[in-house]
Specification:
The structure holds two protein chains of two kinds.
Chain A (H helix, E strand, L loop, with lengths): L4 H24 L19 H25 L20 E3 L5 H7 L10 E6 L1
Chain B lengths: L11 H18 L2 E6 L6 H10 L7 E7 L4 E6 L1 H6 L2 H16 L3 H16 L10
Parallel strand pairs in B: 1-2
Antiparallel strand pairs in B: 2-3
Classes of the chains: A mainly alpha, B alpha+beta.
Chain lengths: 124, 131
């Protein structure tokens, strides 16, 4: 077993030395320093109602408004709202298609009529 | 906050997901991918082939057409793409896409399907094969 008693006293000494400046500074501060300077404008006294309004009612109202806006916003994940079997009344979209989109496809001739393209078809 | 305007099928997040899947697929296998979502004009398969033919490089392109209203899925692969991505593999990806669509997951089906197509197409063509 290790006896750590001899180390205890130097440790306490170091601790005391480290804390002393802080204690000295605190003791030197007199309450007079807390008095506001003469040239400061005297603040109007705040009524309990005003205190309630600023500290409780306004933050509360902000909280309610922000929560409402968040709950009214688009509901995150399922944006497309697609349900099988329902009609699809949206504009066509072409991801990775040519810039002029579907209009260009109208003019395009099916140049490879020999059926060299492959692929698959399916229904669900 | 801003409600999705009428006529827009996808939210910005959905679009981002689909674009990301396409970009990822293109870097994975060096083919061009495009996804068309909407009603087809006339018969679906010829329409899909017409869309495919109007792409910049049809031979190296894979077009996925999804018609959610008619519940039809078409995948068209160009001549060069088909050499690597054969029809059986496309049918497999189409099957998983249809499963997701039937469950109402349009975006997940598209992104998953495009990923799957790219994974299959990643296999390099064997230049030294005898056949």
């Amino acid at each position: 077993m290790i006896d750590n008693r001899p180390k205890l006293i130097p440790r306490r000494l170091v601790r005391a030395v480290a804390v002393t400046p802080a204690l000295l500074v605190l003791a030197a501060v007199s309450p007079a320093l807390a008095v506001p300077p003469e040239q400061w404008v005297e603040a109007d006294p705040v009524s309990p109602l005003g205190y309630l309004l600023v500290l409780l009612l306004i933050p509360g109202a902000l909280f309610v408004v922000i929560s409402l806006l968040v709950s009214l916003g688009p509901s995150g994940k399922d944006g497309s709202g697609y349900q099988p079997g329902l009609a699809w009344r949206h504009e066509p979209e072409w991801f990775g298609g040519p810039r002029d989109g579907v209009e260009k496809a109208e003019q395009a001739q099916p140049r490879t009529l020999e059926g060299a393209e492959g692929g698959a078809s399916g229904r669900w | 906050m801003v409600p999705v305007a009428a006529g827009d099928a996808f939210s910005a997040d959905d679009r981002f997901e689909i674009d990301k899947a396409i970009r990822h697929a293109e870097t994975l296998c060096r083919f061009e991918f495009s996804v068309y979502v909407g009603a087809s004009d006339g018969e679906t398969r010829p329409f899909a082939e017409r869309l495919h033919a109007s792409l910049v490089a049809p031979d190296r392109s894979v077009l996925v057409l999804v018609d959610p209203g008619a519940r039809i899925l078409e995948v068209v692969t160009g001549v060069a793409a088909r050499r690597v991505l054969d029809d059986a593999e496309v049918a497999l990806a189409a099957l998983s896409m249809r499963t997701a669509f039937a469950a109402g997951d349009l975006v997940g089906g598209i992104t998953g399907g495009v990923n799957q197509l790219a994974e299959h197409a990643r296999r390099p063509a064997l230049m030294h094969s005898s056949d």
